């Protein structure tokens, strides 16, 4: 009887861990539609629960495209915003997270991938539509972003023209 009980516990635990792994894999590869654009590094998606969620790209900073509060419109801000909107319009994205999932403004912080495999955060820095901006503890790609910014600046791409 005791062996049978242990066997059932083992089966339950195996099922639990397997279903948790499947759920984690499903979430890892979930695709989201863009619902609204804010600027070159922030946009809204419709999350898995059908609710709007504000996404802020990790590790990059696009110039401000509009005047808000204490922030003024910055050089190349409108161009960066328009580029991101054109790139993402009608597309779906996949999100990956780093250490902190939210910033102090309650925005979801993410590395964003397009369905064609484009790593949006890196692409924007590489093409000069954003600069590297490291905010610990989310530093997984900080060295990559700094290198891409250096190359964009050397080749006078985007805001570096």
UniProtKB/TrEMBL annotation:
Leader peptide range in chain numbering: 1-24
Keyword field: Endonuclease, Hydrolase, Nuclease, Signal
Top-level lineage group: Bacteria
Gene Ontology MF annotations: endonuclease activity; hydrolase activity
SMART domains listed in its UniProt record: SNc
Organism of origin: Cecembia calidifontis
Domain annotation TNase-like: ranges: 28-161
InterPro entries: SNase_OB-fold_sf, Staphylococal_nuclease_OB-fold
Name this protein carries in UniProt: Micrococcal nuclease
